[in-house]
Design brief:
alpha/beta; about 375 residues; binds 2-acetamido-2-deoxy-beta-D-glucopyranose; about 10% strand; Spore Coat Polysaccharide Biosynthesis Protein SpsA, Chain A
């Protein structure tokens, strides 16, 4: 019995000894750990304080040494700096950067300053502007009501004199090919540059062979007073309309939504912004609308009739004579262009809409060089 109890006691003893032995080692490790932690935290607190003080010292030193520049930095917060139009449209932004920047807009309708809205005249050209003298006369005396942007082949070196309205109005340009996405890119580039000027309210796309059919004040009032943007939009069921649609464009664009229109548009600031900020339709049109689908005739008309149909007049302000057939508009020579010719175009009135007002205010033809 006794021996058994001894054994039991011993067993107990041993087990308690084992149990006791474990915490002692653990305790030692724990104490070591806590000590290490304490040492580390003391060190880190000290370092933090030390460096913290040091960085505060550095910033205050930096601040005081940059003091003279602060006035200039603060000027960026003046309203004047946000709204001042750029006198020279040259910049170093890539297309991606430019479109992003141009997509900024104010969300409050009323401007907190006196804003006389301007019309941006955007010339999409190959190079020279043969009709520049005519446009100079058109713009004369209306300096606060318009701005001009010219997109030409990058190789073209403009030679405008300092007194010309076209002087320093060239925007950074790239090659634009007829019927290809690069043409729409050029148009978006023009819109984006023009959007950077907060005074621009209306945006007209023109080419070097366009002429105004009316004087400036007439054109200005016509555009400003219209509730609609002048984008030509129609549904052509034939091979040159719906025939260019590709099923891959669904479901974003249905064949019933597919539209065609003339390239020459006039849009307000809101529509201009929606063209510039588009990232939904662009990839689809770029991928599936390639010759013989001429993307500049379909991309904006289709996208805008889906997104902003009610805001469109569905017609262009620029008269192009397609009556002679073919892929290019009719050209007129010196003998054609007489007063009665202009009067005839001017007398085209739109029946349904804006009764009594002319349908067109610009006229485009190819080879206008012949005329002057
Ligand atoms: C634009 O970039 C060019 C070269 O990349 C440089 O020479 C020029 O100074 C830059 N202009 C501005 C306004 O930053
Ligand atoms: C502009 O043209 C309109 C219509 O043709 C005319 O009534 C107006 O007097 C002209 N304004 C100027 C300043 O020439
Ligand atoms: C798209 O077309 C299909 C027929 O092809 C039609 O059932 C559908 O309603 C159309 N959707 C829209 C939004 O027009
Ligand atoms: C242009 O067409 C759209 C439909 O796509 C329509 O909502 C709009 O009212 C039309 N504009 C005018 C001025 O009739």
């Amino acid at each position: 019995m006794e021996s058994r109890a001894m054994v039991l006691e011993e067993g107990k003893e041993r087990t308690t000894n084992q149990v006791k032995g474990l915490p002692i080692t653990l305790l030692r490790v724990l104490i070591l750990f806590v000590t290490i932690c304490a040492v580390f935290s003391v060190i880190s607190i000290y370092t933090l304080k030390h460096f913290g003080i040091e960085s505060v010292v550095t910033t205050s030193v930096m601040k005081s040494s940059f003091q003279p520049c602060r006035g200039e930095q603060d000027r960026l917060l003046d309203l004047e700096d946000w709204i001042r139009p750029n006198s020279n449209p040259i910049h170093n932004m890539s297309d991606k950067e430019l479109l992003w920047r141009a997509s900024f807009g104010s969300r409050i309708k009323d401007y907190p300053f006196k804003r006389v809205p301007k019309v941006a005249f955007m010339f999409l050209t190959k190079g020279p502007l043969p009709l520049a003298p005519l446009w100079e006369r058109f713009f004369k005396g209306n300096e606060r009501l318009y701005s001009i942007y010219v997109h030409s082949l990058p190789s073209f070196q403009p030679q405008f004199s300092r007194s010309s309205v076209f002087y320093n109005r060239q925007i950074p340009s790239k090659v634009a090919e007829w019927g290809r996405m690069s043409m729409c890119d050029a148009e978006r580039r023009l819109l984006a540059n023009a959007l950077l000027d907060i005074y621009n309210e209306q945006f007209v796309l023109l080419s070097e062979s366009c002429i105004p059919l009316y004087n400036f004040s007439f054109v200005y009032n016509y555009i400003m007073e219209s509730k609609h943007s002048f984008m030509s939009v129609f549904d052509d069921p034939g091979p040159y309309g719906r025939g260019r649609y590709r099923n891959e464009m669904a479901p974003l664009v249905n064949i019933t939504q597919w539209r065609k229109g003339s390239q020459w548009f006039e849009v307000n600031r809101k529509i201009a912004t929606s063209i510039v900020e588009d990232t939904r339709y662009y990839p689809i049109f770029e991928k599936y609308c390639r010759p013989a689908c001429y993307v500049d005739e379909h991309y904006f008309p289709t996208m805008l009739s889906i997104e902003a149909g009610k805001a469109l007049a569905n017609r262009s302000l620029t008269w192009v004579d397609w009556s002679r057939g073919g892929a290019h508009p009719a050209s007129f020579g010196k003998s054609d262009i007489r007063e009665e010719f202009i009067v005839r175009i001017r007398s085209r009135h739109h029946c349904k809409y804006m009764k009594g007002t002319p349908q067109f205010v610009f006229f485009l033809q190819e080879n206008f060089l012949l005329v002057l």
